[in-house]
Amino acid sequence: MAGMIESKLTELGLTLPALAAPIANYVGFVRTSDLLFVSGQLCLGADGKLVAKGKLGAEVSIEDGQKAARACAVNLLAQIKAAVGDLDRVVRVVRLGGFISSAPSFLDGPKVMNGASDLMVTVFGDKGRHARTTIGVAVLPLDAAVEVEGLFEVA
Amino acid sequence: MAGMIESKLTELGLTLPALAAPIANYVGFVRTSDLLFVSGQLCLGADGKLVAKGKLGAEVSIEDGQKAARACAVNLLAQIKAAVGDLDRVVRVVRLGGFISSAPSFLDGPKVMNGASDLMVTVFGDKGRHARTTIGVAVLPLDAAVEVEGLFEVA
Amino acid sequence: MAGMIESKLTELGLTLPALAAPIANYVGFVRTSDLLFVSGQLCLGADGKLVAKGKLGAEVSIEDGQKAARACAVNLLAQIKAAVGDLDRVVRVVRLGGFISSAPSFLDGPKVMNGASDLMVTVFGDKGRHARTTIGVAVLPLDAAVEVEGLFEVA
Fold first, then answer.
1. Which DSSP letter does residue C22 get?
2. CB B39 within 8 A of CB B49
3. CA distance C121 to chain B (A)
């Protein structure tokens, strides 16, 4: 039986992607006590391809960047499910770190990052409201437009 | 009655700024157990304007960057006060993350970040000595010269 | 008597470097409860010189970047030892944050960061498998090619 949060995902038409096998000596998440640290997630879609590739302020539009940030957030959800089995066990989204691949003149990182933040609040309600840091970085792995890491309190 | 730390701020001639209303689906801080995660704070002054705008190694001097980092630290203090009501409840400044908007040739990020670190030690004494990571980033929101996030142990 | 992990380091021919004296108002680590937050470590070798200087995708090769990341990891180990006295007290490597000084076109940050991740797993085994975030940054202090910060659960 699906939990409440996963029913919400179904309502939203969201399917959690299969997790990619780890490609190096690190893992998707580590839990210590009630804190779940999730590795930086690239903006890979359900088809395993980048939702947006390149830099904001250059070949990627704000709208596409927002879709990319949302895809990162979906991948965070998939990691949480793998870690604790049921998204209803999320007590609080504590912190998101947003990394926006940016041309040096691109100032709208926060707008892009809202694609991830908005999804968290849509899915978890007030428990989804989080601390956040957004920065514009020189480049991301695979030329991804956005990467997001997360910290969650879980029961 | 003001606490000891706030009396110290008064001695230093520092006034905590009013908190800006959240402009997106995130919040200024999240507390989980005794850990307080504070969102990345831009170098906004008491007047709501950026203390320094642009990049270190280009249009922003080290001195102005230090003032900017100090402003970020003041904004962290304001978030702590909003979170726990009294700065005396800070048990330890655990970690600061410093993001310096940098031309690719600018190597003095740590000097700039000292503007934030020094304020923490001035205000909190030994409890203010923290772990720190400083990096030079491509660009920051609003073209801010400096952004600082913080983690605090609170009682 | 050396602990098991330090015997492992000896087998690997690894010597932990002396810790540099803090050069500013921050410290190499802060422990709060069972969590040890270690400051960002630059790729300084045992001789106190940078293992690799400059940017990946420009004057630094992937191989040299990997050596640099490994040096950062060795410096993290030295900080842990200073913090808790014996590396056997590491319960889990929770998270590494990898910062790769990158030309805007360099896409192989994760390969570089493996130099740090692989060392953690070599030294700690399964306890060394960690959550990880890797980003390409504009520039690092001293023109270091790599910087790595770490979070550890300790007993």
1. P
2. no
3. 23
Give the torsion sign (CA, A97, A98, A101, A103): negative
Chain B residues with a Cβ under 8 Å from any Cβ in chain A: 23-30, 32-33, 37-40, 55, 97, 99, 104, 137-143, 147, 149
Q: Is the pLDDT of residue B97 over 90?
A: yes
Nearest Cα neighbor of B60 from B129, B109, B114 is B109
Distance from first CA to last CA of chain C, Å, rounded?
A: 19
- At residue B68, φ and ψ (nearest 5 deg) are -65, -45
C139 to chain A: closest CA residue: A138
- Contact by Cβ (8 Å): C79, C29: yes
Name, in order, each residue with C-beta under 8 angstroms of B83's C-beta and a sequence gap of 6 or more. B28, B29, B31, B36, B38, B154
- Cα pseudo-dihedral B3, B8, B9, B10, rounded to 10: 90
**pLDDT band at residue B20, thresholds of 50, 70 and 90?**
low
| Calpha distance C151→C147 (Å, rounded) | 14
- Give the integer Cα–Cα distance in Å for B30 and A90: 14
Contact predicate C86/C155, CB 8 Å: no
Q: Assess whether pLDDT exceeds 90 at residue B24.
A: no
Pairing outcome for strands C35-42 and C146-154: antiparallel
A38, C132 in Cβ contact below 8 A?
A: no
Q: Is the model more confident about C70 or about C12?
A: C70
Confidence (pTM): 0.96
Q: ipTM > 0.90?
A: yes
3-state secondary structure of A148: strand
Amino acid residing at C133: T
Is residue B124 pLDDT above 90, yes or no? yes
Residue of B63, B54, B64, B49 whose CA lies nearest to B17: B49
The number of C-beta contacts closer than 8 angstroms across B and C is 89
Strand partners, B151: B37, B95
Q: Would you state the pLDDT for residue C25?
A: 82
Contact assessment for residue C83 and residue C36, using Cβ atoms and an 8 Å cutoff? yes
Domains within chain B, CATH numbers bracketed: 35-154 (3.30.1330.40)
Would the pLDDT of A123 be above 60?
Answer: yes
* C84: Cβ contacts below 8 Å, ≥ 6 apart: C31, C36, C90, C154
